[in-house]
Specification:
alpha+beta, Alpha-Beta Plaits, NADH Oxidase, 2 domains, four-stranded antiparallel beta sheet, 8 strands, 14% strand, elongated, binds flavin mononucleotide
Length: 267
Protein backbone atom coordinates (compact mmCIF):
# COMPACT_ATOMS: atom_id res chain seq x y z
CA UNK A 1 0.00 0.00 0.00
CA UNK A 2 1.26 3.51 -0.85
CA UNK A 3 1.54 6.40 1.56
CA UNK A 4 -1.89 7.68 0.52
CA UNK A 5 -4.85 5.99 -1.16
CA UNK A 6 -7.73 7.85 -2.75
CA UNK A 7 -11.35 6.81 -2.87
CA UNK A 8 -11.98 8.02 -6.42
CA UNK A 9 -15.74 7.82 -5.92
CA UNK A 10 -15.51 10.43 -3.17
CA UNK A 11 -12.60 12.64 -4.34
CA UNK A 12 -13.74 15.96 -5.87
CA UNK A 13 -10.19 16.76 -7.05
CA UNK A 14 -10.29 20.04 -5.11
CA UNK A 15 -6.51 19.79 -4.64
CA UNK A 16 -6.62 20.98 -1.01
CA UNK A 17 -4.56 17.94 0.08
CA UNK A 18 -1.73 18.88 -2.29
CA UNK A 19 -1.82 22.51 -1.19
CA UNK A 20 -1.98 21.66 2.52
CA UNK A 21 0.95 19.19 2.52
CA UNK A 22 3.90 21.05 4.12
CA UNK A 23 6.43 18.79 2.42
CA UNK A 24 4.92 19.17 -1.06
CA UNK A 25 4.67 15.40 -1.40
CA UNK A 26 1.23 15.31 -3.04
CA UNK A 27 0.72 16.29 -6.66
CA UNK A 28 -2.55 16.56 -8.55
CA UNK A 29 -1.22 15.89 -12.03
CA UNK A 30 -4.20 15.66 -14.38
CA UNK A 31 -6.20 13.26 -12.26
CA UNK A 32 -6.46 12.31 -8.63
CA UNK A 33 -4.00 13.23 -5.87
CA UNK A 34 -0.89 11.06 -5.71
CA UNK A 35 2.38 11.19 -3.85
CA UNK A 36 5.68 12.01 -5.49
CA UNK A 37 7.44 8.76 -4.57
CA UNK A 38 10.97 10.15 -4.52
CA UNK A 39 10.16 12.60 -1.72
CA UNK A 40 7.60 10.52 0.19
CA UNK A 41 10.03 9.99 3.03
CA UNK A 42 9.72 13.71 3.80
CA UNK A 43 6.21 13.07 5.15
CA UNK A 44 6.03 14.28 8.77
CA UNK A 45 2.67 12.55 9.41
CA UNK A 46 1.01 15.86 10.25
CA UNK A 47 -2.26 14.52 8.84
CA UNK A 48 -3.13 17.77 7.05
CA UNK A 49 -3.96 15.86 3.84
CA UNK A 50 -6.49 13.72 5.72
CA UNK A 51 -7.87 16.56 7.85
CA UNK A 52 -8.38 19.01 4.98
CA UNK A 53 -10.21 16.59 2.67
CA UNK A 54 -13.87 17.73 2.65
CA UNK A 55 -15.18 14.31 1.53
CA UNK A 56 -12.96 11.94 3.58
CA UNK A 57 -11.64 10.55 0.29
CA UNK A 58 -7.97 10.46 1.32
CA UNK A 59 -6.49 7.70 3.51
CA UNK A 60 -2.96 8.04 4.80
CA UNK A 61 -1.23 4.76 5.60
CA UNK A 62 -0.57 6.08 9.12
CA UNK A 63 -3.83 8.01 9.63
CA UNK A 64 -7.36 7.19 8.51
CA UNK A 65 -10.12 9.84 8.27
CA UNK A 66 -12.25 7.80 10.73
CA UNK A 67 -9.54 8.32 13.37
CA UNK A 68 -9.66 12.10 12.94
CA UNK A 69 -12.47 13.75 14.89
CA UNK A 70 -14.86 15.95 12.94
CA UNK A 71 -14.64 19.61 14.01
CA UNK A 72 -17.91 21.08 15.24
CA UNK A 73 -18.99 24.21 13.30
CA UNK A 74 -18.78 26.58 16.30
CA UNK A 75 -15.28 25.53 17.42
CA UNK A 76 -13.69 28.96 16.99
CA UNK A 77 -14.10 31.15 20.07
CA UNK A 78 -14.94 34.81 19.55
CA UNK A 79 -12.07 37.37 19.77
CA UNK A 80 -13.61 38.67 22.98
CA UNK A 81 -13.70 35.15 24.56
CA UNK A 82 -10.05 34.61 23.65
CA UNK A 83 -9.17 38.06 24.94
CA UNK A 84 -10.81 37.31 28.30
CA UNK A 85 -9.08 33.93 28.53
CA UNK A 86 -5.61 35.30 27.78
CA UNK A 87 -5.94 38.50 29.77
CA UNK A 88 -7.75 36.73 32.64
CA UNK A 89 -5.02 34.11 33.12
CA UNK A 90 -2.75 34.89 36.07
CA UNK A 91 0.30 33.33 37.57
CA UNK A 92 -1.14 31.61 40.63
CA UNK A 93 1.12 31.54 43.67
CA UNK A 94 -1.45 30.66 46.33
CA UNK A 95 -2.96 27.22 46.11
CA UNK A 96 -5.53 25.32 48.11
CA UNK A 97 -4.04 22.21 49.73
CA UNK A 98 -6.45 20.01 47.75
CA UNK A 99 -4.47 17.52 45.64
CA UNK A 100 -5.07 17.11 41.90
CA UNK A 101 -6.38 13.74 40.74
CA UNK A 102 -4.15 12.01 38.19
CA UNK A 103 -7.22 11.71 35.93
CA UNK A 104 -7.53 15.51 35.78
CA UNK A 105 -3.92 15.79 34.61
CA UNK A 106 -4.53 12.99 32.09
CA UNK A 107 -7.59 14.89 30.76
CA UNK A 108 -5.52 18.07 30.50
CA UNK A 109 -2.68 16.34 28.66
CA UNK A 110 -5.20 14.82 26.26
CA UNK A 111 -5.74 18.42 25.06
CA UNK A 112 -2.18 19.68 25.44
CA UNK A 113 -0.72 16.89 23.28
CA UNK A 114 -2.26 18.70 20.27
CA UNK A 115 0.04 21.73 20.74
CA UNK A 116 2.35 22.25 17.75
CA UNK A 117 5.81 20.64 17.79
CA UNK A 118 8.75 21.31 15.46
CA UNK A 119 8.50 18.98 12.42
CA UNK A 120 5.47 17.40 14.15
CA UNK A 121 7.95 15.51 16.35
CA UNK A 122 5.40 15.22 19.22
CA UNK A 123 8.42 14.54 21.36
CA UNK A 124 7.53 16.45 24.53
CA UNK A 125 7.58 14.18 27.59
CA UNK A 126 5.95 15.06 30.89
CA UNK A 127 6.65 14.23 34.49
CA UNK A 128 3.63 14.89 36.71
CA UNK A 129 4.62 15.30 40.36
CA UNK A 130 1.34 15.00 42.26
CA UNK A 131 2.76 14.59 45.74
CA UNK A 132 3.08 17.90 47.60
CA UNK A 133 6.00 16.53 49.67
CA UNK A 134 7.93 15.75 46.50
CA UNK A 135 7.27 19.26 45.21
CA UNK A 136 8.58 20.67 48.51
CA UNK A 137 11.68 18.50 48.28
CA UNK A 138 12.43 19.99 44.85
CA UNK A 139 11.97 23.50 46.29
CA UNK A 140 14.54 22.71 48.95
CA UNK A 141 16.98 21.34 46.37
CA UNK A 142 16.64 24.62 44.42
CA UNK A 143 17.18 26.66 47.58
CA UNK A 144 20.33 24.69 48.37
CA UNK A 145 21.62 25.43 44.89
CA UNK A 146 20.72 29.13 45.27
CA UNK A 147 22.87 29.27 48.39
CA UNK A 148 25.88 28.40 46.22
CA UNK A 149 25.34 30.72 43.21
CA UNK A 150 26.76 33.94 44.70
CA UNK A 151 26.18 37.49 43.42
CA UNK A 152 26.01 36.72 39.68
CA UNK A 153 22.43 35.60 39.98
CA UNK A 154 19.94 38.07 38.41
CA UNK A 155 17.41 37.76 41.27
CA UNK A 156 17.76 38.61 44.95
CA UNK A 157 18.90 35.43 46.66
CA UNK A 158 18.70 37.27 50.00
CA UNK A 159 15.01 38.04 49.40
CA UNK A 160 14.33 34.42 48.54
CA UNK A 161 16.07 33.13 51.67
CA UNK A 162 14.22 35.71 53.79
CA UNK A 163 10.86 34.51 52.40
CA UNK A 164 11.87 30.97 53.24
CA UNK A 165 12.69 31.97 56.83
CA UNK A 166 9.21 33.47 57.08
CA UNK A 167 7.69 30.08 56.25
CA UNK A 168 6.92 30.84 52.61
CA UNK A 169 8.02 28.77 49.63
CA UNK A 170 9.32 31.35 47.15
CA UNK A 171 10.37 28.67 44.65
CA UNK A 172 7.41 26.36 44.09
CA UNK A 173 4.86 28.28 46.18
CA UNK A 174 3.67 25.24 48.15
CA UNK A 175 1.96 24.02 44.99
CA UNK A 176 0.27 20.63 45.40
CA UNK A 177 1.60 19.51 42.02
CA UNK A 178 4.19 20.22 39.38
CA UNK A 179 4.38 19.48 35.67
CA UNK A 180 7.81 19.10 34.13
CA UNK A 181 8.28 19.12 30.35
CA UNK A 182 11.36 17.16 29.33
CA UNK A 183 13.06 15.47 26.42
CA UNK A 184 16.37 14.59 24.81
CA UNK A 185 18.61 17.34 23.48
CA UNK A 186 19.12 15.79 20.02
CA UNK A 187 16.28 17.76 18.40
CA UNK A 188 17.17 21.47 18.09
CA UNK A 189 13.44 22.36 18.24
CA UNK A 190 12.72 20.41 21.46
CA UNK A 191 13.07 23.46 23.65
CA UNK A 192 10.60 25.49 21.57
CA UNK A 193 8.16 22.55 21.35
CA UNK A 194 8.28 22.01 25.13
CA UNK A 195 7.80 25.72 25.84
CA UNK A 196 4.78 25.83 23.54
CA UNK A 197 3.37 22.73 25.26
CA UNK A 198 3.79 24.44 28.64
CA UNK A 199 2.13 27.64 27.37
CA UNK A 200 -0.73 25.50 26.06
CA UNK A 201 -1.01 23.75 29.43
CA UNK A 202 -1.07 27.17 31.12
CA UNK A 203 -4.20 28.18 29.18
CA UNK A 204 -5.85 24.76 28.95
CA UNK A 205 -5.74 24.45 32.76
CA UNK A 206 -8.15 27.39 33.20
CA UNK A 207 -11.43 25.68 32.24
CA UNK A 208 -10.50 22.85 34.65
CA UNK A 209 -10.57 25.38 37.48
CA UNK A 210 -6.81 25.00 37.89
CA UNK A 211 -4.20 27.71 38.32
CA UNK A 212 -0.59 27.56 37.18
CA UNK A 213 2.71 29.36 37.57
CA UNK A 214 5.86 28.89 35.50
CA UNK A 215 8.61 27.26 37.54
CA UNK A 216 11.47 29.46 36.35
CA UNK A 217 13.73 28.98 39.37
CA UNK A 218 13.45 25.22 39.15
CA UNK A 219 14.21 25.33 35.41
CA UNK A 220 17.33 27.45 35.97
CA UNK A 221 18.47 25.22 38.82
CA UNK A 222 17.91 22.02 36.81
CA UNK A 223 20.12 23.42 34.03
CA UNK A 224 22.93 24.42 36.42
CA UNK A 225 22.93 21.95 39.29
CA UNK A 226 23.56 18.21 38.99
CA UNK A 227 21.87 17.71 42.37
CA UNK A 228 18.65 19.39 41.22
CA UNK A 229 18.73 17.64 37.83
CA UNK A 230 19.17 14.28 39.61
CA UNK A 231 16.37 15.07 42.09
CA UNK A 232 13.97 15.45 39.14
CA UNK A 233 14.43 11.76 38.36
CA UNK A 234 14.05 12.15 34.60
CA UNK A 235 14.91 9.26 32.23
CA UNK A 236 18.60 8.94 31.25
CA UNK A 237 19.60 11.46 28.55
CA UNK A 238 16.57 13.68 29.20
CA UNK A 239 16.75 17.29 30.32
CA UNK A 240 14.12 19.55 31.79
CA UNK A 241 12.87 22.17 29.34
CA UNK A 242 10.46 23.89 31.68
CA UNK A 243 8.05 23.35 34.51
CA UNK A 244 4.78 24.58 35.83
CA UNK A 245 3.30 24.64 39.32
CA UNK A 246 -0.31 23.61 39.21
CA UNK A 247 -3.20 23.43 41.67
CA UNK A 248 -6.56 24.84 42.64
CA UNK A 249 -6.23 28.61 43.29
CA UNK A 250 -6.80 29.85 46.85
CA UNK A 251 -8.56 32.96 45.51
CA UNK A 252 -9.66 34.58 42.26
CA UNK A 253 -8.51 37.84 40.66
CA UNK A 254 -11.17 40.50 40.09
CA UNK A 255 -9.31 42.67 37.55
CA UNK A 256 -6.81 42.45 34.71
CA UNK A 257 -3.53 44.18 35.63
CA UNK A 258 -2.16 46.60 33.02
CA UNK A 259 0.68 45.54 30.71
CA UNK A 260 3.03 47.43 28.36
CA UNK A 261 1.74 48.16 24.87
CA UNK A 262 2.91 45.65 22.24
CA UNK A 263 6.40 46.52 21.02
CA UNK A 264 6.15 46.29 17.27
CA UNK A 265 7.79 47.84 14.26
CA UNK A 266 5.81 47.94 11.06
CA UNK A 267 8.25 47.40 8.23
C1 LIG B 1 9.71 31.73 31.82
C2 LIG B 1 8.99 32.17 33.06
C3 LIG B 1 9.47 31.79 34.30
C4 LIG B 1 8.79 32.18 35.46
N1 LIG B 1 9.23 31.73 36.67
C5 LIG B 1 8.55 32.03 37.79
C6 LIG B 1 8.96 31.50 39.07
O1 LIG B 1 9.91 30.72 39.17
N2 LIG B 1 8.24 31.86 40.16
C7 LIG B 1 7.16 32.70 40.09
O2 LIG B 1 6.55 32.99 41.12
N3 LIG B 1 6.74 33.22 38.90
C8 LIG B 1 7.40 32.88 37.74
N4 LIG B 1 6.97 33.37 36.53
C9 LIG B 1 5.75 34.18 36.46
C10 LIG B 1 6.01 35.64 36.09
O3 LIG B 1 6.54 36.32 37.19
C11 LIG B 1 4.65 36.23 35.67
O4 LIG B 1 4.28 35.65 34.44
C12 LIG B 1 4.66 37.75 35.50
O5 LIG B 1 4.93 38.39 36.74
C13 LIG B 1 3.33 38.28 34.97
O6 LIG B 1 2.23 37.88 35.78
P1 LIG B 1 1.01 37.09 35.15
O7 LIG B 1 1.55 35.77 34.64
O8 LIG B 1 0.01 36.91 36.23
O9 LIG B 1 0.49 37.92 34.02
C14 LIG B 1 7.63 32.99 35.36
C15 LIG B 1 7.14 33.35 34.11
C16 LIG B 1 7.80 32.94 32.97
C17 LIG B 1 7.22 33.29 31.63
Amino acid sequence: MGLITIDEGKCTRCGFCARACPAGIISMGDGFPETIEKIEKGCITCGHCVAVCPTAALNHSRMMPQECAQLSPGWRLTPSQVEQLIKGRRSVRNFRTEPIEAQVIADLLEIVRYAPTGMNSQNVSWKAVLDEQEVQALSLAVIQWLGSVGDDFPYSVKGILKALEMGRDPILRKAPALMIAHGTADDPLSFASATIALATLDLAALPFGLGTCWAGFLTMAAASSCEVATALGLPPGHRMYGGMMIGYPAFEYARIPTRNPARVTWG
